[in-house]
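To the wet lab folks,

You asked to see what we're planning to order before we commit. Fair enough. Below is the target structure as tokens, and below that is the sequence we designed to fit it. If anything looks off to you, flag it before the synthesis order goes out.
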């Protein structure tokens, strides 16, 4: 065995750990987004103010997730 093999294993483990964390964040985002969609659909059409608020919060949440994802993709 050469000396590079343990270093490779360590780097591979770190990569898998980082990928696992990123996937967990993505899953959390998808669940939160689904809850916002469910909240929007549960509101009746007469509650336009609440529907507008939920829509705006959903857009802000999606945009912030997009920019966070773009920032994390650079590294």
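Sequence we intend to order:
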């Amino acid at each position: 065995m050469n000396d590079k093999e343990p270093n490779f294993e360590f780097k591979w483990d770190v990569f898998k750990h980082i990928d696992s964390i990123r996937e967990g964040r993505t899953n959390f985002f998808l669940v939160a987004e689904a809850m916002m969609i469910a909240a929007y659909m549960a509101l009746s059409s007469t509650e336009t103010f609440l529907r507008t608020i939920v829509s705006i919060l959903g857009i802000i949440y999606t945009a912030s997730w997009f920019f966070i994802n773009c920032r994390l993709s650079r590294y």
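Structural context that might help your review: The CA atoms of residues 64 and 70 lie 10 Å apart. The chain is about 85% helix and 0% strand.

Thanks,
Computational group
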